[in-house]
Amino acid sequence: MSLDDLKEQLYRCSGCTECYGRGPWIPYKDAVDAIDTWVCPTLKEFKFVTYTGKGQQYLAREVAYGRMELDEEIAKVFYSCTTCGICDEICPRPLLETQKEMRAEIFNRRPDLIPQGTREADERIRTTRNFLGGRPEKRGHWTKGLEIPTRGKVMFFAGCHLSYRQPQSARLTVQILRKAGVDVGYSPGEECCGLHPSGDGNQGLLKDLVSKNVRMIQESGAEVVLASCPGCFKTFKMDYPKIVGKLPFRVVHLSELLRDLIREGKLKLGGVGDEAFTYHDPCLLGKQHLGRRQALYEAPREVIKSIPNLRFKEMRRNRRWSYCCGGGALVTQSAYPDLSQRMSKDRLDEVKEVADAVITTCPLCVANFKQGTKGAAAKTAVYDLQELVAKALGIQPLP
Asked: For domain 276-393, is the CATH number 1.10.1390?
Protein backbone atom coordinates (compact mmCIF):
# COMPACT_ATOMS: atom_id res chain seq x y z
CA MET A 1 0.00 0.00 0.00
CA SER A 2 1.13 3.58 -0.63
CA LEU A 3 -0.03 6.99 0.53
CA ASP A 4 -1.88 7.35 -2.77
CA ASP A 5 -3.78 4.11 -2.05
CA LEU A 6 -4.96 5.59 1.26
CA LYS A 7 -6.27 8.88 -0.15
CA GLU A 8 -9.95 7.97 0.04
CA GLN A 9 -9.63 6.63 3.60
CA LEU A 10 -8.00 9.85 4.74
CA TYR A 11 -11.33 11.70 4.34
CA ARG A 12 -13.21 9.37 6.66
CA CYS A 13 -12.09 10.64 10.08
CA SER A 14 -15.22 11.66 12.00
CA GLY A 15 -13.30 13.78 14.50
CA CYS A 16 -14.49 11.77 17.51
CA THR A 17 -11.26 12.53 19.48
CA GLU A 18 -10.91 8.91 20.65
CA CYS A 19 -7.30 8.95 19.42
CA TYR A 20 -6.55 11.76 21.87
CA GLY A 21 -7.13 9.43 24.79
CA ARG A 22 -10.58 8.90 26.22
CA GLY A 23 -12.93 10.98 24.06
CA PRO A 24 -16.68 11.60 24.12
CA TRP A 25 -17.53 8.73 21.77
CA ILE A 26 -16.57 5.39 23.25
CA PRO A 27 -17.13 2.59 20.74
CA TYR A 28 -19.12 -0.34 22.08
CA LYS A 29 -16.20 -2.73 21.85
CA ASP A 30 -14.28 -0.52 24.30
CA ALA A 31 -17.12 0.10 26.73
CA VAL A 32 -16.39 -2.84 29.01
CA ASP A 33 -12.68 -2.25 29.55
CA ALA A 34 -12.38 1.47 28.79
CA ILE A 35 -10.10 3.40 31.14
CA ASP A 36 -9.79 7.12 31.73
CA THR A 37 -6.02 7.13 32.31
CA TRP A 38 -4.80 6.65 28.76
CA VAL A 39 -3.74 9.58 26.62
CA CYS A 40 -1.83 9.56 23.33
CA PRO A 41 1.85 9.65 24.39
CA THR A 42 2.91 12.30 21.88
CA LEU A 43 -0.16 14.43 22.64
CA LYS A 44 0.83 14.30 26.31
CA GLU A 45 4.33 15.41 25.37
CA PHE A 46 3.66 18.15 22.79
CA LYS A 47 0.14 19.29 23.81
CA PHE A 48 -1.03 19.76 20.20
CA VAL A 49 -3.81 17.73 18.51
CA THR A 50 -1.61 17.73 15.40
CA TYR A 51 0.34 14.86 16.97
CA THR A 52 -2.70 12.59 17.42
CA GLY A 53 -4.06 10.09 14.93
CA LYS A 54 -6.63 12.66 13.85
CA GLY A 55 -3.95 15.26 13.21
CA GLN A 56 -1.82 12.79 11.30
CA GLN A 57 -4.77 11.82 9.10
CA TYR A 58 -5.33 15.48 8.24
CA LEU A 59 -1.67 16.13 7.41
CA ALA A 60 -1.41 12.95 5.34
CA ARG A 61 -4.54 13.91 3.39
CA GLU A 62 -3.21 17.38 2.59
CA VAL A 63 0.13 15.96 1.47
CA ALA A 64 -1.52 13.18 -0.57
CA TYR A 65 -3.66 15.69 -2.48
CA GLY A 66 -0.80 18.11 -3.02
CA ARG A 67 -2.24 20.86 -0.84
CA MET A 68 0.64 20.85 1.62
CA GLU A 69 4.39 20.42 1.15
CA LEU A 70 6.50 18.20 3.35
CA ASP A 71 8.54 20.18 5.89
CA GLU A 72 10.38 19.76 9.19
CA GLU A 73 7.26 20.18 11.32
CA ILE A 74 5.37 17.48 9.43
CA ALA A 75 8.37 15.15 9.69
CA LYS A 76 8.53 15.76 13.44
CA VAL A 77 4.86 14.82 13.85
CA PHE A 78 5.35 11.48 12.12
CA TYR A 79 8.78 10.55 13.48
CA SER A 80 8.00 11.39 17.11
CA CYS A 81 4.94 9.11 17.12
CA THR A 82 5.73 5.90 19.03
CA THR A 83 3.31 3.87 16.84
CA CYS A 84 2.17 2.26 20.10
CA GLY A 85 -1.06 1.32 18.31
CA ILE A 86 -3.68 2.12 20.93
CA CYS A 87 -5.40 4.60 18.63
CA ASP A 88 -5.42 1.98 15.89
CA GLU A 89 -7.12 -0.43 18.29
CA ILE A 90 -9.92 2.06 18.83
CA CYS A 91 -10.43 3.54 15.37
CA PRO A 92 -11.47 1.69 12.19
CA ARG A 93 -9.44 4.15 10.10
CA PRO A 94 -5.95 2.93 9.02
CA LEU A 95 -4.04 5.15 11.45
CA LEU A 96 -0.86 3.10 11.67
CA GLU A 97 -0.89 2.35 7.96
CA THR A 98 -1.12 6.09 7.34
CA GLN A 99 1.77 6.67 9.74
CA LYS A 100 3.87 4.06 7.94
CA GLU A 101 3.17 5.39 4.47
CA MET A 102 3.82 9.00 5.45
CA ARG A 103 7.26 8.02 6.75
CA ALA A 104 7.89 6.21 3.46
CA GLU A 105 6.74 9.34 1.60
CA ILE A 106 9.16 11.48 3.59
CA PHE A 107 11.97 8.98 3.07
CA ASN A 108 11.45 8.85 -0.69
CA ARG A 109 10.71 12.53 -1.38
CA ARG A 110 12.51 14.46 1.36
CA PRO A 111 15.11 12.26 3.08
CA ASP A 112 16.78 15.46 4.34
CA LEU A 113 13.82 15.86 6.73
CA ILE A 114 14.45 12.53 8.47
CA PRO A 115 15.89 13.08 11.98
CA GLN A 116 19.66 12.69 12.05
CA GLY A 117 19.60 9.90 14.64
CA THR A 118 17.26 7.88 12.44
CA ARG A 119 19.51 8.28 9.41
CA GLU A 120 22.51 7.27 11.51
CA ALA A 121 20.72 4.14 12.74
CA ASP A 122 19.97 3.07 9.17
CA GLU A 123 23.61 3.64 8.24
CA ARG A 124 24.74 1.46 11.16
CA ILE A 125 22.41 -1.28 9.96
CA ARG A 126 23.61 -0.93 6.38
CA THR A 127 27.31 -1.13 7.27
CA THR A 128 27.35 -3.47 10.28
CA ARG A 129 24.05 -5.34 9.71
CA ASN A 130 22.84 -4.49 13.22
CA PHE A 131 21.00 -1.56 14.79
CA LEU A 132 23.61 -0.98 17.49
CA GLY A 133 26.64 -0.78 15.23
CA GLY A 134 28.41 -3.75 16.83
CA ARG A 135 31.11 -5.59 14.94
CA PRO A 136 29.44 -8.25 12.74
CA GLU A 137 31.97 -10.93 13.70
CA LYS A 138 30.98 -10.51 17.36
CA ARG A 139 27.26 -11.05 16.81
CA GLY A 140 27.42 -14.69 17.84
CA HIS A 141 29.89 -14.30 20.73
CA TRP A 142 27.08 -14.87 23.23
CA THR A 143 27.03 -18.55 22.20
CA LYS A 144 30.52 -19.18 23.61
CA GLY A 145 30.49 -22.34 25.73
CA LEU A 146 26.99 -23.37 24.61
CA GLU A 147 28.02 -25.28 21.46
CA ILE A 148 24.78 -24.48 19.65
CA PRO A 149 24.31 -26.22 16.27
CA THR A 150 23.90 -24.02 13.21
CA ARG A 151 21.15 -26.21 11.79
CA GLY A 152 17.96 -27.54 13.30
CA LYS A 153 14.18 -27.63 13.21
CA VAL A 154 13.93 -24.82 15.75
CA MET A 155 16.22 -21.83 15.16
CA PHE A 156 16.60 -19.09 17.73
CA PHE A 157 16.71 -15.61 16.19
CA ALA A 158 18.51 -13.64 18.90
CA GLY A 159 18.22 -10.16 17.36
CA CYS A 160 20.48 -7.14 17.81
CA HIS A 161 19.83 -6.24 21.45
CA LEU A 162 20.33 -9.73 22.86
CA SER A 163 23.36 -10.36 20.67
CA TYR A 164 25.22 -7.20 21.67
CA ARG A 165 23.70 -5.62 24.77
CA GLN A 166 21.89 -8.39 26.65
CA PRO A 167 23.85 -11.59 25.88
CA GLN A 168 22.96 -13.13 29.23
CA SER A 169 19.31 -13.23 28.20
CA ALA A 170 20.23 -14.99 24.97
CA ARG A 171 22.30 -17.59 26.87
CA LEU A 172 19.55 -18.11 29.44
CA THR A 173 17.03 -18.71 26.64
CA VAL A 174 19.09 -21.63 25.33
CA GLN A 175 19.75 -22.98 28.85
CA ILE A 176 16.03 -22.93 29.69
CA LEU A 177 15.05 -24.69 26.48
CA ARG A 178 17.70 -27.38 26.97
CA LYS A 179 16.41 -28.01 30.48
CA ALA A 180 13.01 -28.66 28.90
CA GLY A 181 14.53 -31.02 26.32
CA VAL A 182 14.13 -28.62 23.39
CA ASP A 183 17.01 -28.64 20.92
CA VAL A 184 17.52 -25.21 19.42
CA GLY A 185 19.90 -24.00 16.73
CA TYR A 186 21.35 -20.60 15.97
CA SER A 187 23.00 -19.08 12.91
CA PRO A 188 25.69 -16.46 13.56
CA GLY A 189 24.92 -15.28 10.02
CA GLU A 190 21.66 -13.66 11.13
CA GLU A 191 21.34 -9.94 10.45
CA CYS A 192 19.12 -7.21 11.89
CA CYS A 193 15.49 -8.26 11.50
CA GLY A 194 14.66 -4.91 9.87
CA LEU A 195 12.39 -3.41 12.52
CA HIS A 196 13.96 0.04 12.30
CA PRO A 197 13.90 0.44 8.49
CA SER A 198 10.40 -1.05 8.49
CA GLY A 199 9.34 1.74 10.84
CA ASP A 200 11.25 4.67 9.35
CA GLY A 201 10.28 4.16 5.69
CA ASN A 202 13.53 2.70 4.34
CA GLN A 203 11.95 -0.08 2.34
CA GLY A 204 15.09 -0.79 0.28
CA LEU A 205 17.14 -1.61 3.37
CA LEU A 206 14.28 -3.65 4.82
CA LYS A 207 13.99 -5.78 1.67
CA ASP A 208 17.73 -6.44 1.68
CA LEU A 209 17.63 -7.66 5.29
CA VAL A 210 14.52 -9.76 4.69
CA SER A 211 15.96 -11.59 1.69
CA LYS A 212 19.21 -12.42 3.50
CA ASN A 213 17.56 -13.58 6.72
CA VAL A 214 15.00 -15.73 4.92
CA ARG A 215 17.74 -17.36 2.85
CA MET A 216 19.83 -17.97 5.98
CA ILE A 217 16.90 -19.60 7.78
CA GLN A 218 16.01 -21.78 4.79
CA GLU A 219 19.61 -23.00 4.59
CA SER A 220 19.46 -23.96 8.27
CA GLY A 221 16.58 -26.35 7.63
CA ALA A 222 14.40 -24.60 10.22
CA GLU A 223 10.68 -25.30 10.51
CA VAL A 224 10.22 -22.85 13.38
CA VAL A 225 11.89 -19.50 14.06
CA LEU A 226 11.86 -18.63 17.75
CA ALA A 227 12.06 -14.94 18.68
CA SER A 228 12.25 -13.52 22.18
CA CYS A 229 12.28 -9.91 20.91
CA PRO A 230 8.79 -8.63 20.03
CA GLY A 231 10.36 -6.40 17.38
CA CYS A 232 11.87 -9.39 15.59
CA PHE A 233 8.62 -11.33 16.10
CA LYS A 234 6.48 -8.55 14.64
CA THR A 235 8.79 -7.92 11.70
CA PHE A 236 8.95 -11.61 10.77
CA LYS A 237 5.20 -12.11 11.19
CA MET A 238 3.92 -8.88 9.64
CA ASP A 239 6.53 -7.46 7.29
CA TYR A 240 8.35 -10.46 5.84
CA PRO A 241 5.26 -12.04 4.20
CA LYS A 242 4.48 -8.73 2.48
CA ILE A 243 7.88 -8.88 0.81
CA VAL A 244 8.53 -12.59 0.14
CA GLY A 245 5.04 -14.08 0.36
CA LYS A 246 4.16 -16.96 2.66
CA LEU A 247 7.11 -17.86 4.86
CA PRO A 248 8.51 -21.40 4.62
CA PHE A 249 8.65 -21.59 8.43
CA ARG A 250 6.52 -20.70 11.46
CA VAL A 251 7.37 -17.80 13.75
CA VAL A 252 6.85 -18.32 17.49
CA HIS A 253 7.44 -15.97 20.39
CA LEU A 254 9.38 -17.29 23.38
CA SER A 255 6.50 -16.60 25.79
CA GLU A 256 4.27 -18.94 23.77
CA LEU A 257 6.82 -21.75 23.88
CA LEU A 258 7.54 -21.30 27.60
CA ARG A 259 3.79 -21.37 28.35
CA ASP A 260 3.42 -24.64 26.43
CA LEU A 261 6.44 -26.23 28.10
CA ILE A 262 5.09 -25.31 31.54
CA ARG A 263 1.65 -26.71 30.67
CA GLU A 264 3.29 -29.95 29.51
CA GLY A 265 5.21 -30.26 32.77
CA LYS A 266 8.59 -29.95 31.08
CA LEU A 267 9.51 -26.90 33.14
CA LYS A 268 8.83 -26.99 36.88
CA LEU A 269 9.24 -23.58 38.43
CA GLY A 270 10.22 -22.72 41.99
CA GLY A 271 9.97 -19.48 43.95
CA VAL A 272 11.92 -16.32 43.18
CA GLY A 273 11.79 -14.34 46.44
CA ASP A 274 9.60 -11.70 48.06
CA GLU A 275 9.66 -8.89 45.50
CA ALA A 276 6.32 -7.57 44.28
CA PHE A 277 6.16 -7.85 40.49
CA THR A 278 4.15 -6.29 37.71
CA TYR A 279 4.21 -6.90 33.96
CA HIS A 280 4.68 -4.41 31.13
CA ASP A 281 3.06 -5.35 27.80
CA PRO A 282 5.35 -4.44 24.90
CA CYS A 283 3.46 -2.61 22.15
CA LEU A 284 4.85 -4.91 19.48
CA LEU A 285 3.54 -8.04 21.16
CA GLY A 286 -0.02 -7.04 21.80
CA LYS A 287 -2.20 -4.42 20.17
CA GLN A 288 -2.76 -4.12 16.44
CA HIS A 289 0.49 -3.03 14.88
CA LEU A 290 0.04 -2.85 11.13
CA GLY A 291 -1.87 -6.09 11.35
CA ARG A 292 -0.20 -7.29 14.50
CA ARG A 293 -3.36 -8.42 16.27
CA GLN A 294 -1.30 -11.13 17.92
CA ALA A 295 -2.78 -10.17 21.29
CA LEU A 296 -0.05 -12.05 23.14
CA TYR A 297 -1.20 -10.69 26.47
CA GLU A 298 -1.92 -13.89 28.34
CA ALA A 299 1.01 -16.16 27.41
CA PRO A 300 3.64 -14.21 29.39
CA ARG A 301 1.21 -13.72 32.27
CA GLU A 302 0.55 -17.44 32.42
CA VAL A 303 4.29 -18.07 32.60
CA ILE A 304 4.74 -15.48 35.36
CA LYS A 305 1.79 -16.74 37.39
CA SER A 306 3.13 -20.30 37.18
CA ILE A 307 5.87 -19.26 39.61
CA PRO A 308 4.78 -20.41 43.11
CA ASN A 309 3.84 -17.72 45.65
CA LEU A 310 4.74 -14.89 43.29
CA ARG A 311 3.42 -11.51 44.41
CA PHE A 312 1.91 -10.02 41.25
CA LYS A 313 -0.22 -6.95 40.60
CA GLU A 314 -1.29 -5.33 37.33
CA MET A 315 -0.63 -1.70 36.51
CA ARG A 316 -3.63 0.53 35.79
CA ARG A 317 -2.81 0.53 32.08
CA ASN A 318 -2.29 -3.05 30.98
CA ARG A 319 -2.88 -5.32 28.00
CA ARG A 320 -4.39 -3.29 25.14
CA TRP A 321 -4.12 -0.07 27.17
CA SER A 322 -0.48 -0.60 28.10
CA TYR A 323 1.56 2.59 27.87
CA CYS A 324 4.59 2.63 25.56
CA CYS A 325 8.05 2.41 27.15
CA GLY A 326 9.12 5.17 24.76
CA GLY A 327 11.13 2.99 22.41
CA GLY A 328 8.68 3.51 19.57
CA ALA A 329 9.79 0.41 17.61
CA LEU A 330 13.36 1.84 17.75
CA VAL A 331 12.39 4.84 15.58
CA THR A 332 11.33 7.21 18.37
CA GLN A 333 14.39 6.16 20.32
CA SER A 334 16.75 6.92 17.45
CA ALA A 335 15.01 10.13 16.36
CA TYR A 336 14.24 11.71 19.73
CA PRO A 337 16.11 9.90 22.54
CA ASP A 338 15.20 12.48 25.19
CA LEU A 339 11.50 12.06 24.39
CA SER A 340 11.95 8.31 24.59
CA GLN A 341 13.45 8.56 28.07
CA ARG A 342 10.72 10.85 29.38
CA MET A 343 8.10 8.34 28.28
CA SER A 344 10.08 5.55 29.92
CA LYS A 345 10.10 7.41 33.22
CA ASP A 346 6.33 7.95 32.96
CA ARG A 347 5.85 4.20 32.70
CA LEU A 348 8.27 3.51 35.56
CA ASP A 349 6.25 5.86 37.78
CA GLU A 350 3.29 3.61 37.07
CA VAL A 351 5.33 0.54 37.99
CA LYS A 352 6.24 2.07 41.35
CA GLU A 353 2.56 2.48 42.23
CA VAL A 354 2.10 -1.29 42.42
CA ALA A 355 5.42 -3.18 42.52
CA ASP A 356 9.12 -3.33 43.31
CA ALA A 357 10.05 -4.90 39.98
CA VAL A 358 8.79 -4.93 36.41
CA ILE A 359 8.91 -7.89 34.03
CA THR A 360 8.67 -7.54 30.29
CA THR A 361 9.34 -9.64 27.21
CA CYS A 362 11.05 -6.94 25.14
CA PRO A 363 14.80 -6.19 25.20
CA LEU A 364 14.17 -2.63 24.02
CA CYS A 365 11.76 -2.05 26.92
CA VAL A 366 14.35 -3.58 29.28
CA ALA A 367 17.04 -1.22 27.96
CA ASN A 368 14.75 1.83 28.18
CA PHE A 369 13.63 1.01 31.71
CA LYS A 370 17.15 0.39 32.96
CA GLN A 371 18.21 3.70 31.47
CA GLY A 372 15.20 5.34 33.09
CA THR A 373 16.13 4.05 36.55
CA LYS A 374 19.60 5.60 36.47
CA GLY A 375 19.96 8.26 39.10
CA ALA A 376 16.62 7.40 40.71
CA ALA A 377 16.59 7.35 44.50
CA ALA A 378 14.31 4.31 44.62
CA LYS A 379 15.55 1.76 42.12
CA THR A 380 13.06 -0.38 40.23
CA ALA A 381 14.30 -3.85 39.34
CA VAL A 382 13.83 -4.73 35.66
CA TYR A 383 13.63 -8.34 34.46
CA ASP A 384 13.08 -9.87 31.10
CA LEU A 385 10.94 -12.99 31.10
CA GLN A 386 13.74 -15.49 30.56
CA GLU A 387 15.73 -14.01 33.49
CA LEU A 388 12.78 -14.59 35.80
CA VAL A 389 12.11 -18.11 34.49
CA ALA A 390 15.79 -19.04 34.80
CA LYS A 391 15.74 -17.81 38.38
CA ALA A 392 12.65 -19.90 39.10
CA LEU A 393 14.40 -22.95 37.59
CA GLY A 394 17.59 -22.37 39.57
CA ILE A 395 19.61 -21.93 36.37
CA GLN A 396 22.85 -20.05 36.84
CA PRO A 397 23.88 -17.84 33.93
CA LEU A 398 27.08 -18.82 32.19
CA PRO A 399 30.02 -16.44 32.73
From this structure: no
